[in-house]
Amino acid sequence: MNSSLPMSFRYRAVWISDIHLGTKGCQAEYLLDFLRVVECDDLYLVGDIIDIWRLKRAWYWEQAQNDVIQKLLRKARKGTRVHLISGNHDEKLRDFGRHEFGNVDLVEEAVHEAADGKRYLVLHGDQFDAVVRHQRWLAHLGDDAYQLLLSVNQIVNRVRRGLGFPYWSLAAFLKNQTKNAVSYISNFEQLLSAEAKRRGFDGVICGHIHHAALRTINDVLYCNDGDWVESCTALVEHSDGRLEILDWCELRGLRRGVDAKARRALVESLA
């Protein structure tokens, strides 16, 4: 991860995923700061942009989340090529097939050719998650458990801030400590890398597991752009084709684990 503020936030391409608009965990205020500052030729929204799963159970939609949609559409109108790739939480979009609306290209997967000629398969990744594909009830149960973890994490970090301690992710801690979770992530990465290699791509770019990564697996480059629930990360392509993961909170000095009001105040101080 790059820890210094780059001279320019202009990139050839940008990938973000797992925004989960429609949930309390969505870091919409920080994403708005990202979209306000970052410019690119191609913007890939790599699935789970709107959390239809959660919205079907209980309606939750803040103004900042509405502003994210407006900002994305404004970028498209001004010339940014926006590619909306469906994920499992917004899988209803797949019913439309390939479709274009408001200068936004809706697809199930995309192919990106970088400036150095390398070709990348771009997809959300849930297609390679056996739980999502074959045990949907368990996937929904896991989503409920994750939402509960986020709520508990807010309380834990409120106490930690009061004691002068930095942000700590309970969800990330449990993932790293649980053998099954570590194995699940590894299997997911292996499967996607193998699929990219089988189809003749130089790499694969995905989201889904909320775990940012950039490394070579099976002789192809595996890239995961992370999420905008906890990590607030994005994958970017520089003008020479080089790929990099940006940790937006680290770059902008934004605090993790604070409520929406505090996030707004932090972002306004940067404007």
Primary descriptors:
Purple Acid Phosphatase, chain A, domain 2; 271 residues; five-stranded mixed β-sheet; 12 strands; seven-stranded mixed β-sheet; globular; alpha/beta
Structural summary, described in words:
This protein is an alpha/beta fold. The chain has one domain: 4-Layer Sandwich (Purple Acid Phosphatase, chain A, domain 2). The chain is built from 9 helices and 12 strands. It has helices spanning 28-37, 52-57, 63-77, 130-134, 136-162, 170-177, 179-198, 248-252, 260-270; strands at 10-16, 39-46, 81-85, 99-101, 104-107, 109-113, 119-123, 203-206, 213-217, 220-224, 233-237, 243-247. The strands form 2 sheets. A 7-stranded mixed beta sheet has the order 4-5-3-2-1-11-12. It has a 5-stranded mixed beta sheet with strand order 6-7-8-10-9, with helices on one face. The chain is globular.
Structural class: alpha/beta
Q: Biggest β-sheet: count, sense, barrel?
A: 7 strands, mixed
The CATH homology group name: Metallo-dependent phosphatases
CATH fold topology: Purple Acid Phosphatase, chain A, domain 2
Query: What ranges have pLDDT less than 50 throughout 5 or more consecutive residues?
Result: none
Helical content stands at 25-40%
Q: Name the beta content range.
A: 15-25%
Report the mean per-residue pLDDT as an integer: 84
Q: Determine the number of helices (DSSP H or I, runs of at least 4 residues).
A: 9
Specify the overall morphology.
globular
Rg is 18 Å
Give the strand tally. Answer: 12
Task: Note the gap between the termini.
Answer: 24 Å
Indicate how many domains the architecture comprises.
1
* Major β-sheet strand ordering: 4-5-3-2-1-11-12
CATH class reads Alpha Beta
CATH architecture: 4-Layer Sandwich
